[in-house]
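User: Sequence recovery, please. Input:
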């Protein structure tokens, strides 16, 4: 607050908004974010949009995401992907959802890459395409996304869209388990019990 009051810098207004929001003072947080938004600070637009969504104004939430995404903000691009996928503040549009998820993924967002994989995997919003799903899951998994690791593990285990490979399935589950995923840990233990991979007491 002192830094913002002293300088009027929009970055400090944004940080003040985050601090206020973290201590459950949304009204004051919105005021701080609003100051940064007026100065065109994209990250503040995203957080301001989130607060508007929490207040039930999906259209305003969407509009702020759009404005921030147009200025290159990665989180805003991801949030726009979610909005277009789920029809939040706009009409559902899978093509635009994919466009914005791909933009966020290109900027390194692992969850965006996972969501693209899920869209092609589930086949509800467009025709299922296992090969495309696997490619995006693989990218997300390489970036550390546990949900992608689990889904890849399932696909390797069941042979969905790829040659079944128990060792690769176990490896995906192991990686997810190492990141704290309980389902991954359970599946990896099953593979140990089946002898696909060595059990702990069998390892060197």
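Assistant: Recovered sequence (204 residues):
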């Amino acid at each position: 607050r002192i830094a913002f009051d002293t300088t009027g810098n929009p970055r400090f207004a944004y940080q003040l908004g985050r601090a206020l929001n973290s201590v459950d003072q949304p009204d004051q947080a919105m005021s701080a974010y609003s100051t940064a938004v007026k100065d065109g600070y994209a990250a503040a637009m995203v957080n301001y949009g989130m607060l508007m969504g929490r207040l039930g104004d999906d259209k305003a939430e969407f509009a702020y995401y759009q404005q921030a995404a147009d200025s290159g903000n990665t989180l805003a691009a991801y949030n726009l992907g979610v909005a277009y996928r789920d029809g939040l503040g706009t009409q559902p549009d899978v093509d635009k959802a994919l466009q914005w998820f791909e933009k966020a993924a290109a900027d390194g967002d692992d969850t965006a890459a996972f969501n693209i994989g899920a869209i092609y995997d589930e086949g509800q919003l467009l025709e299922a395409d296992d090969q495309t799903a696997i490619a995006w899951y693989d990218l997300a998994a390489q970036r550390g996304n546990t949900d992608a690791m689990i889904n890849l593990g399932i696909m390797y285990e069941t042979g969905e869209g790829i040659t079944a490979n128990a060792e690769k399935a176990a490896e995906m589950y192991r990686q997810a388990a190492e990141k704290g995923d309980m389902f991954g840990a359970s599946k990896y233990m099953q593979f140990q019990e089946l002898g696909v991979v060595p059990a702990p007491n069998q390892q060197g």
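The mean pLDDT is 86.
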